[in-house]
């Protein structure tokens, strides 16, 4: 009989998987009052964005479609604390966000490997913590699978599918004529650095040998510009069951490719002064299980920008379909099939069709293979994580734990409004919260008077939010003409004010990229706090300062007053930005 400890835990919400989707789901759940745990099988958080894998977080590439909410909060803090874009500091940013979030307990190095059912519901999961050699038995009301691999599909009866559907099944023109088990493969990334002198490279004897361009056609894009995502294998195998063998093959390929670049390629003179900085040992995985929800997102949903009443997230990356053979395929390694940006992702794609208390987010959502080719990117996964974490927490007080039953039109509308309050973007939806006192206020400003009303019109980015007719040149922020400047909101009558919410312009024209790719590290956003953000401001109620901030680096700020302050005029006095001559505020909210 095992003498190893077995510890029982009870939580409201249990999130499996600590990549960007799972971490953000757990933070959202905890912030909305649910006693939450996050179970992650690695020593650091971030999943494919972590220091162990180092893939960059991407989403829609069009102007003003940057993901906000918790994801941007994390990214802005990283750029503030980590101007050198060091992966160890990135690890510490993620660690701090999870481990010091009230209501959130995080289990690292802990693998979910079993579940107990109570009828058709999940009662508990059994997990193994490698470092402390402890079994963790976790009971919860709601379970959220953000594991990427969809582990709850392996230990519960949850419905899932994998591989490529036939063209016929969902009338998707991009899919193959016959369904198959092929998937996208895994990639092992490398990081390189330029030095002042030649750097020799002697490959290990076990590395694969590549000696001519025909050995890796369509792959090389120059040493300075490549992030080596194309070192990919495994799509012809089972990316879960064959994971160890795939990793071994990728190791041999990685060292062989660097040998080719340094010692055989036409670009070897260009590569002379470049050295290996880091080689991953954990492949980034793209595809395996996809859960089945009440709706399966398809190619046609994306291309038609289908409207969903239960929208809770969005995407916009192309349907980026990697060939299953990866490096073994002699043609183009990926085809970018057009996907209009943005498109909606409904809640029905984020909960299980047959397990009432199971939600999911990340690369395992309910989608066909080709729709998944777009939804799989990490920024899109992250906004789905915020949606399910918020839903799980908001609906805990209901009598039922059945997500389908809880997804009434009224509950979904309340969820959408809460996501908007938390700085999510839901396409054509805008702030309609009756509790927001600012919506009834009369705005004025010391400069930029003609734009003052835009701070309470419910739109929090420079984008015309009329579904299907997007314009990225429509201004939706109060914009001062100089600094200092003040924006004031006069309520119809004096009210007790407890919370003031501010949404600043953080500069969507930049990407907050953390990646080993040298070109991206050179051309991402300026390091440090972002220039447009208002750094020094005061919040006043009827002329009295109730809060002053001198070092702000975030887009969304929530100021909860120790006690309600009765007043009629809320004023935001902007004194300085990080490096811009004017102030811009997208939204002001006030709550009693």
Identify the CATH class of the largest domain: Alpha Beta
- Average residue pLDDT: 94
> What is the count of structural domains?
3
In CATH, what is the homologous superfamily of the largest domain? Answer: FAD/NAD(P)-binding domain
CATH architecture of the largest domain: 3-Layer(bba) Sandwich
Number of E-state strands: 27
Low-confidence stretches: none
Radius of gyration: 25 Å
Which geometry do the CA atoms define? globular
The structural class is alpha+beta
Helix percent reads: 10-25%
CATH domain topology of the largest domain: FAD/NAD(P)-binding domain
Q: Give the number of helices.
A: 11
Strand content: 25-35%
Mind describing the biggest β-sheet?
A: 7 strands, mixed
Alpha-carbon distance between the termini? 58 Å
Which key features would you list for this structure?
592 residues, alpha+beta, 7-stranded mixed beta sheet, 7-stranded antiparallel beta sheet, 11 helices, 27 strands
Report on the structure:
It is a single chain. By secondary structure, this protein is an alpha+beta fold. It folds into 3 domains: 6-165 and 286-418, FAD/NAD(P)-binding domain (3-Layer(bba) Sandwich), CATH 3.50.50.60; 186-285, no CATH class; 430-591, Galactose-binding domain-like (Jelly Rolls, Sandwich). Helices cover 20% and strands 28% of the residues. The chain has 11 helices and 27 strands. It has helices at 20-31, 69-81, 87-99, 151-155, 243-263, 299-303, 369-375, 378-394, 403-406, 409-421, 518-523, and strands at 6-16, 36-39, 104-107, 110-118, 121-129, 134-145, 160-161, 186-187, 190-194, 232-233, 274-279, 284-285, 290-291, 311-315, 319-322, 334-337, 343-346, 358-360, 442-445, 464-466, 469-471, 478-479, 485-504, 534-541, 544-549, 556-577, 584-591. The strands form 8 sheets. Strands 1, 2, 3, 4, 5, 6 and 18 form a 7-stranded mixed beta sheet that branches. Strands 19, 22, 23, 24, 25, 26 and 27 form a 7-stranded antiparallel beta sheet that branches. The chain has a 3-stranded antiparallel beta sheet with strand order 10-8-12, with helices on one face. The longest helix is centred in the middle third of the chain and has 21 residues, at 243-263. It is globular. The termini are far apart. The mean pLDDT is 94.
């Amino acid at each position: 009989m095992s003498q190893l400890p077995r510890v029982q835990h009870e939580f409201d919400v249990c999130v499996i998987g600590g990549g960007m989707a799972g971490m953000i789901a757990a933070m959202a759940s905890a912030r909305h009052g649910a006693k939450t745990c996050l179970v992650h099988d690695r020593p650091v958080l971030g999943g494919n964005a972590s220091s162990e894998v180092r893939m960059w977080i991407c989403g829609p590439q069009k102007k003003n479609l940057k993901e906000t909410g918790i994801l941007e909060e994390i990214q802005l803090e990283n750029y503030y604390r980590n101007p050198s874009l060091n992966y160890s500091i990135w690890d510490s940013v993620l660690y701090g966000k999870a481990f010091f979030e009230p209501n959130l307990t995080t289990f690292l190095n802990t693998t979910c490997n079993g579940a107990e059912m109570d009828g058709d519901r999940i009662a508990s999961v059994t997990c193994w913590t490698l470092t402390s050699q402890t079994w963790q038995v976790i009971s919860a009301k709601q379970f959220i699978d953000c594991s990427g691999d969809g582990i709850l599909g392996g230990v519960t009866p949850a419905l899932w599918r994998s591989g490529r559907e036939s063209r016929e099944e969902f009338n998707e023109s991009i899919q193959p004529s016959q369904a198959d088990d092929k998937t996208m493969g895994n990639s092992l990334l490398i990081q390189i650095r330029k030095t002042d002198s030649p750097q020799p490279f002697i490959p290990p004897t076990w590395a694969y040998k590549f000696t001519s361009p025909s050995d890796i056609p369509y792959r090389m894009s120059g040493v300075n510009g490549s992030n080596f995502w194309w070192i990919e294998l495994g799509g012809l195998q089972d990316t879960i069951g064959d994971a160890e063998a795939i990793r071994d093959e990728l190791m041999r390929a990685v060292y062989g490719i660097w040998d080719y670049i340094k010692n055989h390629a036409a670009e070897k003179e260009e590569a002379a002064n470049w050295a290996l900085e880091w080689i991953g040992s954990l492949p980034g995985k793209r595809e395996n299980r996809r859960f089945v929800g009440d709706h399966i997102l398809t190619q046609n949903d994306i291309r038609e920008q289908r409207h969903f009443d239960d929208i809770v997230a969005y995407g916009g990356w192309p349907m980026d379909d990697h060939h299953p053979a990866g490096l073994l395929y002699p043609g183009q390694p990926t085809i970018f099939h057009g996907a209009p940006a943005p498109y909606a992702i409904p809640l029905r794609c984020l909960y299980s069709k047959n397990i009432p208390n199971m939600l999911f987010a990340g690369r395992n959502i309910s989608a066909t293979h080709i729709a998944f080719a777009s939804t799989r990117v990490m920024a899109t996964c992250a906004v789905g994580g915020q949606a399910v974490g918020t839903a799980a927490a908001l609906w805990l007080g209901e009598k039922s734990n059945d997500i389908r039953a809880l997804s009434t039109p009224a509950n979904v509308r309340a969820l959408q409004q809460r996501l908007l309050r938390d700085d999510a973007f839901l396409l054509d939806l805008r702030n309609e919260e009756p509790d927001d006192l600012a919506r009834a206020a009369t705005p004025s400003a010391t400069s930029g008077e003609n734009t003052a009303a835009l701070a309470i019109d419910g739109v929090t980015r420079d984008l015309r939010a009329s579904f299907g007719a997007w314009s990225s040149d429509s201004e939706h922020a109060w914009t001062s003409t100089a600094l200092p400047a003040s924006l004031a909101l006069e309520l119809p009558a004096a009210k007790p004010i407890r919370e003031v919410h501010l949404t600043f312009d953080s500069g969507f024209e930049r990407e907050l990229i953390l990646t080993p790719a040298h070109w991206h590290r050179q051309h991402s956003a300026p390091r440090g706090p972002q220039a447009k953000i208002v750094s020094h401001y005061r919040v006043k109620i009827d002329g009295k300062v109730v809060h002053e901030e001198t070092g702000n680096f975030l887009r969304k700020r929530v100021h909860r007053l120790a006690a309600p302050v009765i007043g009629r005029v809320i004023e935001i006095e902007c004194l300085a930005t990080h490096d811009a001559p004017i102030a811009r505020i997208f939204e002001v909210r006030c709550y009693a």
